[in-house]
Design goal:
Layout (H helix, E strand, L loop, with lengths): L40 H13 L5 H4 L15
This protein binds zinc ion.
Zinc ion binds next to loops.
Length: 77
């Protein structure tokens, strides 16, 4: 049983990249490792500000669920 996995046929076409390159969601430039998944700190800040301002909702969840998008906005707590 020892060393049985050492050799063998490689499944052709099944190459899984370690880290798939993703474009920056803000400006579509290639993202960097340091600011992944953004291309720069600036874009990360932009994305964050979108979240904070509330204009950035998860699209798939938002679609169809919101009845009146104009009513919401001011969060009174
Ligand atoms: Zn960017």
């Amino acid at each position: 049983m020892a060393g049985a996995r050492k050799t063998g046929t490689k499944t052709s076409g099944e190459v899984v990249p370690l880290r798939p390159a993703r474009p920056c969601p803000i400006c579509d430039k290639s993202s960097t490792r340091a600011n992944y998944p953004f291309c720069s700190k600036r874009c990360a800040d932009i994305d964050l500000s979108h979240w904070l301002s509330g204009s950035y909702v998860i699209a798939s969840a938002e679609e169809g669920l919101s009845s009146d998008p104009e009513a919401g906005g001011e969060d009174d707590r």
